[in-house]
Write a structure and sequence with these properties.
Elements: H1 2-24, E1 31-32, E2 37-38, H2 41-59, H3 64-103
Antiparallel strand pairs: 1-2
Length: 118
């Protein structure tokens, strides 16, 4: 079982690397600035590996082929999970800002709508 989890973690990490390269069109290295640390590709590799291991634990596949496929799907699903959480946080933040602005009797234009081209 431990061998399956290690294999799933490696495959999920590789899928995290591929989704990072797909989203950013390059591989961003980790950078340490004066006040912040930008993990770059390491964050996507970590999320892919963790989600692949969790998928293996919940699915409990029988053969090696199923372990590979489950880990690939889990690693790729890690990116979607990150995007959903980020989108949810952005939506909640905009709702809080709009409610605060409405208390002051001001209105902000919606941030998510694109301007109409004329």
């Amino acid at each position: 079982m431990l061998e399956n989890l290690v294999i799933a973690g490696c495959i999920g990490g590789f899928m995290g690397l591929l989704t990072h390269a797909k989203r950013n069109n390059t591989i961003k290295k980790p950078r340490n600035h004066k006040t912040t640390f930008n993990p770059g590709v390491l964050l996507d590799i970590g999320f892919g590996a963790v989600v692949a291991v969790v998928a293996i634990l919940f699915a409990d596949p029988n053969g090696m082929e199923r372990i590979f496929l489950t880990a690939i799907l889990g690693g790729y699903a890690g990116e979607n999970a990150i995007n959903m959480v980020e989108k949810d946080k952005t939506l909640k933040n905009s709702e809080v800002v709009n409610s605060l602005v409405l208390e002051e009797n001001e209105e902000l234009p919606p941030a998510n709508k694109k301007k109409k081209e004329q």
